[in-house]
Amino acid sequence: MKFLTVFRKTLREMSRDKWMLGLTLAFAPFFVFVYWLITAGGSTTYTILVINHDAGVQLSDGSSFNAGEGVVNAIAGITYADGKPLLKAVPIASQVEVEPILRNRGAAAFLLLPENFSQILQDLKGGDRSVTARVTFGGDLSNPYYMVGVNLALTAVDGYVQKATGQQPLIQYDEQALGASATRSEFETYVPGTLVFAVILLIFLASMIVAREIETGTLRRLQLSSVTSLDLLGGITAALVLVGTAAFALAFLVALAVGFRSQGPVWLAFLVGALSTFSVIGLGMVVASFSRTVSHAFVVANFPLGLMMMFSGVIYPLPVVRLFSIAGHDFGLYDFLPPTHAVAALNKILTLGAGPGGVTYELAALTVLSVIYFALGVWLFRRFHLRTV
Q: Which CATH code, of 1.10.3470, 3.30.420, 3.90.1150, 3.40.1710, is assigned to 46-181?
């Protein structure tokens, strides 16, 4: 019964602090909406600067042939599965104009087509295999868009050359996408990580609520009523899981409202969200164990927050640093962070359409880590703040 008393008390206190509760619930949906605005609700279009020096050639039938213009059209013809442009070809007069645009990251890369480009393609079409077309490309290699943009552009050039010359490649590649990954917009690929990010932010609320009990002296009064650390932290955790799941649900609803489509069971995604909420709150309890004031808890919580943001795949994918295997699954260095498994599970459910059987490992890992971190939080809290209980 004391657990329920703490649970109700925590909910009442959070409801009174409308700013903190409101920001906790609103930040995640706001973050999803901002991502939608950043991607314009769709996907990134990579700009390719094309310096077309091709002079073209006059054909025997009197018509003209300009392969440079064909390349520009081929680049512009590269689209996503939904027909939205993937590449944008922008004609540029000279290489001198290219550098300032690339320095300011106004484009992903540039292509330079030689003057004899059309003539070389005609020679290749006629069977002369001794000629070579030299296409120059480049850009800012530190720009994360460079490799994607230039590879797609060169693929477009290669495809156009094959079509124009009638020469077939030695190897034919066929791409097979998993699930619905080929039809996902860029915004939709960000949604799983964004939902987990919403849960990660609960570490502030969790650590600060517990620290407030210590700072205001409420903890001592609770000790007099024989409340155990398990009752106190369990009641607070239950209230926070409720708030965290609500924040997850609001963020998910906003994603649906702006065009997100789930390929797998939504209830399973919510289960992952609830488990990840529990695990993050457990980390918050660990932080609170080393804090005596709300401000101290806020500062200390930034460290695990940074770890979870940078090393769990929420923002960008990380290479696997394998430590050992569990039931055929590699357990990596970053897998000690619960959000790592939450991101993997949500990607499988929301993008690849996986069911419970497809995320069994991730659910088990989330459950085990959640219990471990919560138990650690209870033990540390009892050790540092409830020694007499």
A: 3.40.1710
